[in-house]
Every structure is written in structure tokens, then in C-alpha cells.
Design goal:
alpha/beta; TIM Barrel; Urease, subunit C, domain 1
Amino acid sequence: MSQHLENARIVTPEGVHHGSLTIEDGRIAALGQDAPKGATRINLGGDLLLPGLIDLHGDAIEKEVEPRPNAFFPLPVALNTIDRRMAAAGVTTAFHGISFAEGELGVRDVAFAETLARALHEFSGAVDHHVHIRYELTDAASETRVTRLIDEGVASLLSFMDHTPGQGQFRDVAAYGAYLSRVYAKDEGEILDRITAKQAEAGNIVARVERLAQHARPHGVALASHDDEGADRVAFMARMGATISEFPLDLDTARAGRAAELVTLFGAPNVLRGCSQSGALSARDAILAGVAGALCSDYAPQAMLPAIGVLTGKMGLDWPQALDLVAGAPARATGLGDRGVIARDKRADLIRVRDVGGALSVAATWVAGAQVYGFGARTAAA
């Protein structure tokens, strides 16, 4: 049975068009045509119709699994909850970040992380879920775990993190120690041992990236670098086959990433709040400078759609530009050529959107043509 969505403001790569869209067999069969005979007709009442959002980096699953330190929920409960959160946020394709960093606690324990990655890979929910392995390059022991998950087809995206104290995000060694003390309640001796161990592994990082990148590419796993600093780092990751540069630390690095044809990724919460939570590069500054390639949820899936409102309102981007940051570019970066835009023959991943109290809000979500979420707006047949 086909569906005909009509009376909508449809955002395509060419602009915003008032009209209709037909869904057949999970794909967009037509734009601007009359309803096919026998189709279910749904009047969207002039609401926006956007492509489903694609989230390349989201950590929210960690809080669903471990909402408080050492308080773990059963994985089926956590996975079903994150599935519904994503649908309500308009995210139809989600890459969930699962960290492999030996020595961390709770959900980031590497043995638990491996269990979670497999459970997520096997989970069949309302939206399309993918495993984004975040690998800490100073963790020698987890290289075999990551390799195994690649071989088993569990990983869709692999990002390389380097949190060696004295550079990158933690260029201040004292700041890294404070982070361990605050987040993991480590004492001074444990902090010193961890800093020493990580610094000792720094000389092995390049060879580890080369091995894992070479192993991942034939399996179709997309590659990303994390917290890039400097053109040399960007150039190296581009040579390794990376397509994404997550959270470049400064404008010059972001420019280098764009010049290397990497998708530079920033957080939607950064856009929504107007600044980085950690004091890093402002996503708004990066967008205005033309060096931001995409946005992700980071830690808050509910920020992605309202961030589009900031882009098209306060920042003056047009709708196709804004949607490319949260759908088109992420699809291209991960080789998902069947989605990311509203166009004929693309997968019918769609969201119905309206302004509620000054913020964009999801009224309905379709994934591969099936409506998986509805709130606050009728979607019944006309």
C-alpha cells in the first residue's frame, strides 16, 4: 500500500517546495504528483517535511545503559529506550559511540563495551542503528577486540581517539588528572599510573592506526579521526582513508580537514547553546567560517533538530544548507547513498516538523516508509 503525503513544505537539495510526496515499498516514488489510486493520503497541514537526520556520533546510549554510576539497566531496556529517543528526535540513522579505552569504568569497561556493541548490532528497532567504535589508541590490549568486531561485521564506523596527556584535548596534564579525579574518582597514585601508561604507549600509535585502518577498509567500515589538532594530523588520517574529522580543535585544523575533503564534525549542542561545553572551538564560528561539514548529537540527540532552527534562523543558512549538515553530508561520509536527501528513489526516511514554542519539534517520523513515531499532530488518512 502506497502513502501519499500532501500539503507539506518539502525540503529538497534544491529548496523548499509546497507539495506532495508518494511512498511505495519503503522508498520515495514521486514528488509533486497526484495521489496514486488506492494510496493512503495524509494531509500534513503545511508542516515541514525533512529527510531523517543521520547522527554520526552519539554517546547518549551510555546514559541509557548506566544512568547512574554502577547502576546498570538490562540491555533490552536500554536499547528500546534509545530507539524511541532517536525516533522522537527525528534521527532515523544513528551511529552510537561505544568506547574502548582500558582502565575506564562502568559502561566504558572494554569487556562490557564489547558486549554492548554486539547487542546493539543484533538489535532490530524502529530506527536504523549502527555501532560506532571509539578506539583509544593508547589502549594496546583492545586492538584485538576492535579487530574481532570488525571481522564479525559489528562495526560500521571506527574513530581513532588519542587522549594522551600533554596534547590534543588534554594538552594540560593537570587537566587530564582533574578529569580522572572528577569523573572516575581516581586517587593521585592511580592518576599518575594512568598518565605514565598512556604516555608510554604514545610511540606505538601510528603503527596501530595503520594496522586497524588497513583492516577496516575492506570491511566497508568508515573511518574517523577525533579531536584533531594541526594539518599534519589531518593529512595523516586522510592518507589512512578517514572520511570524517570529529571535533577539530581550532579553525586552522578544521580548514585543513576541509581542504583534505574530510567531513569536519561538530556537536549540535554546541550550535544550540552557542558555545562548546568543554571550551573547544565554537561550532557556530566554524559554520560561519565555512569549515563545518556536519553536525552530530554528541551527547544530546534532542539537540539536532532545534540546532537546525538556529542555523536557518539566527545564522541565516538556507534550508538545504542546514539539512546537508545533519543528513546529506553524514550519509556521504559513511557511504549511505540511499538516504540523506528527499529525492525520488531514495529511502523514505522522513520527519514531519513544526515550530513549537519557538523550537523545531518532530510531529512524525518515518523509517523506510513505515511511520515509527507520532506526537502532537494528526497523521491519519485524509
